[in-house]
Each structure stands twice: as structure tokens, then as C-alpha cells.
Specification:
By secondary structure, the protein is α/β, with parallel strands linked by helices. The protein folds into two domains: about 270 residues, D-Maltodextrin-Binding Protein, domain 2 (3-Layer(aba) Sandwich); about 100 residues, D-Maltodextrin-Binding Protein, domain 2. The chain is built from eleven helices and 14 strands. Strands 1, 2, 3, 4, 5, 6, 7, 8 and 14 form a nine-stranded mixed beta sheet that branches. Strands 11-10-12-9-13 form a five-stranded mixed beta sheet. The N terminus is likely disordered.
Length: about 400
């Protein structure tokens, strides 16, 4: 259940003491679970031939445990994959639409697997990482010492929610209606409460930042409001937590000003020129991959669950949660084409400006940043986006 640690709270992770990631394990520690590769080789020099421009292994770093929200990465892993249970990674041929791109893809989880280090910190520790999932607020936190540039969005709005007991707050449908009744808001960091204090009637005296991702507090104290994800907790609490076993009330934090781009794929700012030729081909692949996953998530969901089980951590993840998550990403409008341009994966400059305007003061007040003169245009680029890619095509 640690999955629900706040994305915003991870902005502070860059301030933690950095420790090097574990090295690759011996071959004996690998768990080969894939079959022979069933894909056609890309035509030499074609848009899907990455072999001439990208690293032999494209390494992608996620910010949390394997889950459906990361479907774009896992959907690219070919059937010849190998799971490394020591290093906690899965590697296979990078395949899109049945075409082998000529390079491998390695997907690494974040969170407890990397000592809760922020993705920019990991990217600056390890040059092998090609792309990392860097939330907009985390990119702002790392702007001074670990700058990254987002090259394509994935989720359009954040799936983070605040949730409450509908029996305790009958008739409540919004966060505002619950905080107005004096509910204590339990989160894993200070950024969300600070935002709520600006956008709702929330009293910061009712903030509790002790959340550790477990259901025990919510189950035992039905008066609190607790963070979670629209794409997980409503299903988990109703279907997988026997002590609860009923619906929760919830609202997206995006509705009350949490306007970040969640988990956009980014490169280190000092490597964007070096990786430019690769990104020209790879970014459209990533745009299409998430669309493909959401159209037919079943096989990739099974892989995600298999990977979680192979890692054998305290983290658990069921096919039921994965199916619910993939459906919710679409049903709740969490994944859409960019509303401003109609292009999937493209960033909206006005929204990026609004994100900087919102989060720079909040992060400064929390002592997480000292540089406040941040140009939003330095946090992202649409240079590599294929404007023909849309969920409507």
C-alpha cells in the first residue's frame, strides 16, 4: 500500500543523502521468464529502427513500484524479457506494434527499491538512465542542482485524490465540503496541505503529514481524509481490504489546484543534445506506446503483476487493481490528448507557466528550493513530439 506516498512529497527526496544504486546482479540471480521474441525487425533506417541512434539498452527509470500508470514503459517490453530479481529491473527487446526496434529496454522501479531517491537524483548518479519519470514539481525541486527536461507527458492530470468515509460525511462530494467540516487531512508531506490552504477553506492546523501508505489509520479513524490515487485506492479499499469492504468518497486533487504533469518522461538537461537523435525517434514511440497499452492492457498488466511478484517485496499488486487502474485512467480523463493542441503527449506552455506559478512559492515556503526565478520553458520541450499522434486517430 506504500504506493500512495505523495508525488509532491517526493520533491523532498532530492534533499536526502544520496546513496549509489545497487549494481547489476550476477546472471544466476536473474529470473528468465520470457519466451522467444515474436516480432519483426524494423527496416534499417526507418522510424522504428532505433539501433543507429539510441543506446543499445534504453534504460527507463520510474518513480514508484511497477503499476498500470507505468503501462507505456512495460508495454514496450518484448516477449524475450528477463527479470532481474536482485537489481529489481526487467529487460527485453524494445518492441512497438510487433516491430523489434533493434535495441533493448530496461525498466527500473523507484520508491523503496532506490531508497526513495527522487528520479532526477538517480539520473545524475547513473548515466545509463535514458529517460526518467519526473513529476513537474519534482523537476522544479531539482532545477538548480539536478535539472531535467521533460520530452513527453504521459498522464495528463494527476490521479492523486483525497478520500473520505461517505458514512461519516454523508452527501459530501468534494474536498471542500469535507475540509469545511474540520476533517484532519493525512498526507505524506507538506505540499498538498499548503496547496489546500490556498485553494480551499482548509485550516493547516488540521494537517497530519504522518501518512506511510498503509490502510490502518483510515480504517480505524473514519473522520480523517487521506491521500490516495483514483486509479487504485477506490478499488483496493472496496475489494481487497476486508476490514473496509465498501466504497470511499474521493475527489481528484487536480480539481483543487494540483496541476502538475504527473510522471512525464524526462532527460537530464546536460544530455539533451547528446540524445537528440535518439529522442527524435524514441519520443513518438513513447507517445504511441501508452495509447496502445490503454487500448489493450491485459498482457502488459499480467507482466506488471509478474514483475511485482518476482521482486518479492512488501508491495503487492493484483490483476484486479491493474484492470481498474487502466480503465480509470480513461474514464476519469486522467489520460487524454493535450487539451490545447489535440496532440497526445504534448506540453501546454500556458499550463507549464501555471505550474511554475503555483509550485515555486509552495516549494520555497517548505524550504525545498532556493532558486525561484525559473523559466518554465527550461523544464520541457515539444521538439521531439510527433504532432500526428492522437488518441483520436
Amino acid at each position: 500500500m506504500n504506493r500512495t506516498i505523495s508525488i509532491a512529497a517526493l520533491s523532498a527526496a532530492g534533499l536526502l543523502a544520496l546513496t549509489a544504486c545497487g549494481g547489476a546482479s550476477d546472471a544466476a540471480d536473474d529470473t528468465a521468464t520470457g519466451a522467444a521474441l515474436d516480432a519483426t525487425a524494423a527496416e534499417a533506417g526507418s522510424a522504428l529502427d532505433l539501433s543507429d541512434v539510441c543506446p543499445a539498452t534504453v534504460v527507463m527509470q520510474q518513480d514508484w513500484q511497477p503499476q498500470a500508470e507505468h503501462g507505456a514503459m512495460y508495454d514496450l517490453i518484448g516477449s524475450d524479457y528477463t527479470i532481474d530479481t536482485e537489481a529489481k529491473s526487467v529487460t527485453g527487446s524494445l518492441v512497438l506494434d510487433g516491430v523489434d526496434t533493434g535495441v533493448d529496454i530496461e525498466v527500473r522501479p523507484g520508491g523503496p527499491n532506490v531508497g526513495f531517491q527522487a528520479v532526477p537524483a538517480l539520473m545524475y548518479l547513473d548515466d545509463d538512465i535514458t529517460l526518467g519519470a519526473v513529476n513537474s514539481d519534482v523537476a522544479i525541486s531539482g532545477y538548480e542542482s539536478q535539472p531535467t527536461i521533460a520530452v513527453t507527458s504521459q498522464l495528463t492530470i494527476s490521479p492523486q485524490i483525497l478520500m473520505w468515509d461517505p458514512d461519516t460525511y454523508p452527501g459530501a462530494t468534494t474536498i471542500e465540503e469535507v475540509v469545511a467540516q474540520g476533517a484532519v487531512v493525512v498526507t505524506a508531506g507538506d505540499v498538498i496541505p499548503a496547496l489546500l490552504a490556498e485553494t480551499t477553506s482548509f485550516d493547516l492546523a488540521n494537517s497530519d503529514t504522518s501518512y506511510e501508505g498503509t490502510p490502518a489509520r483510515f480504517v480505524s479513524d473514519t473522520t480523517i481524509m487521506q491521500q490516495g490515487f483514483a486509479s487504485a485506492e477506490p478499488y483496493i479499499y472496496e475489494s481487497e481490504i476486508a476490514e473496509w469492504g465498501r466504497p470511499v468518497g474521493s475527489q481528484l486533487l487536480a480539481d483543487v489546484g494540483y496541476n502538475i504533469y504527473p510522471e512525464p518522461l524526462a532527460v537530464r538537461a546536460d544530455r539533451i543534445d547528446e540524445l537528440s537523435d535518439c529522442l527524435t525517434k524514441l519520443v513518438p514511440v513513447m507517445q504511441q506506446s501508452l495509447i496502445n497499452y490503454l487500448e489493450d492492457p491485459a498482457a502488459t498488466n499480467e507482466l506488471i503483476v509478474e514483475v511485482v511478484e518476482a521482486y518479492d517485496l512488501s508491495w503487492t499488486y493484483s490483476v484486479g487493481v491493474a484492470e481498474f487502474s487502466a480503465a480509470t485512467l480513461l474514464d476519469e480523463g486522467i489520460v487524454t490528448d493535450d487539451p490545447a493542441s489535440g496532440v497526445f503527449g504534448q506540453f501546454d506552455p500556458e499550463r507549464m507557466q501555471a505550474i511554475v506559478d503555483t509550485f515555486v512559492p509552495l516549494l520555497e515556503a517548505q524550504g525545498l528550493i532556493t532558486v525561484t526565478d525559473i523559466d518554465p520553458a527550461e523544464l520541457y520541450t515539444n521538439e521531439f513530439i510527433d504532432p500526428s499522434i492522437s488518441m483520436e486517430n
